């Protein structure tokens, strides 16, 4: 496996009237060719901002890169111009955003919206654009493609619109697709169909996926590895199996207790995590989760926990994982 995307110490902030918001603080992770990496966390944890940094879609200003690097095929993204990014978006790194209503242009025909991905690529002829659009619409399971090609978004159902979004993300044959909560607005049946479709397309096309969600159930179905974010930082990362069964971080454990478990019966009580995420205007000096953590110790409020490697490829930023820390069994409901 080769590293396609390598993010190191990414730190991105926004200047606002209230001060500087530190949205992403020292985030590092890699994505290898063909794998699916999930980024999970509550809203405001920095997962969407991280995704938008990879595509340079955060407005600058008010946003700005404080430090770090984002290497795509060994090339730095952060220093690329708008013009260079327009060539990369869609063709190298595809993306699917949250809400199909806001991300498809209601005044533009489906076919044209898909072909927009080629806008910065005059070398691709009109004829080829249409052929590729039609081909990808078929691949995402849209019937009666010639007619759909001419339709507007309002003529499509929610699930169908999401298929069009996926088609648009894949038409340029990118090596990575970033999907930010693409199924959140769909009902469960349609969501399951869309996840199956993504999985199938990934197998066929070999595309790597970064899947952003607040839902660990979706992560379990789709992802190889997972990155758990809290307060703009990565608190735990590893293979999905390790995260679910060798959980290292109290926040991850809280997330697991607050979503329906696939491996347990349905009537298990779900326990939401109490409290609210940290204020990112002035993030705590110590562990970002300390104010909500039932295991918090003195050191947690004073010093940021470093990353401890629990097993190969499984990292956890929590003082409980220090070799001298007391043995604690996280409560699993
Ligand atoms: Fe809880 Fe301390 Fe671990 Fe943070 S470092 S999650 S406060 S035990
Ligand atoms: Mg978001």
UniProtKB/TrEMBL annotation:
Keyword Transferase: no
GO biological process: peptide transport
UniProt membrane topology term: Peripheral membrane protein
Keyword line: ATP-binding, Cell membrane, Membrane, Nucleotide-binding, Transport
GO terms for MF: ATP binding; ATP hydrolysis activity
Domain of life (superkingdom): Bacteria
Principal place of residence: membrane
InterPro entries: AAA+_ATPase, ABC_Ni/Peptide_Import, ABC_transporter-like_ATP-bd, ABC_transporter-like_CS, Oligopep_ABC_C, P-loop_NTPase
SMART domains hit by this protein: AAA
GO cellular component, one term: plasma membrane
Compartments reported by the entry: Cell membrane
Domain ABC transporter: 5-256
Family: Belongs to the ABC transporter superfamily.
Listed name of the protein: ABC transporter ATP-binding protein
């Amino acid at each position: 496996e080769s590293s396609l995307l390598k993010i190191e110490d990414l730190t991105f902030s926004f200047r606002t009237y209230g001060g500087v918001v530190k949205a992403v603080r020292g985030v590092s992770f890699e994505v290898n060719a063909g794998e699916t990496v999930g980024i999970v966390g509550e809203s405001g944890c920095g997962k969407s901002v991280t995704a938008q940094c990879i595509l340079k879609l955060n407005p600058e200003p008010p946003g700005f890169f404080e430090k770090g690097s984002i290497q795509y095929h060994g090339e730095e993204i952060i220093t690329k111009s708008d013009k260079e990014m327009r060539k990369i978006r869609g063709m190298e790194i595809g993306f699917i955003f949250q809400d199909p209503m806001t991300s498809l242009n209601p005044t533009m025909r489906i076919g044209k919206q898909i072909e927009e991905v080629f806008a910065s690529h005059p070398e691709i002829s009109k004829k080829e654009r249409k052929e590729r659009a039609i081909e990808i619409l078929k691949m995402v399971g849209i019937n009666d493609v010639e007619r759909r090609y001419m339709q507007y978004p309002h003529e499509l159902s929610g699930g169908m619109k999401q298929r069009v979004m996926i088609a648009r993300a894949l038409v340029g044959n990118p090596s990575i697709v970033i999907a930010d909560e693409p199924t959140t607005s769909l009902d469960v049946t349609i969501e399951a169909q869309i996840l199956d479709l993504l999985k199938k397309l990934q197998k066929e096309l070999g595309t790597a996926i970064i899947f952003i969600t607040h839902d660990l159930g979706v992560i379990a179905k789709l992802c190889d590895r997972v990155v758990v974010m809290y307060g703009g930082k990565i608190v735990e990362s590893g293979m999905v199996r390790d995260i679910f069964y060798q959980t290292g971080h109290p926040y991850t454990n809280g997330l697991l207790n607050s979503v329906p478990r696939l491996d347990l019966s349905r009537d298990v009580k779900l326990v939401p995590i109490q409290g609210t995420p940290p204020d990112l205007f002035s993030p705590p000096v110590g562990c970002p989760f300390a104010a909500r953590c039932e295991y918090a110790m003195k050191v947690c409020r004073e010093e940021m926990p470093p990353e401890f490697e629990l097993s190969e490829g499984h990292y956890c930023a929590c003082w409980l994982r220090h070799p001298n820390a007391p043995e604690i069994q996280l409560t699993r409901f």
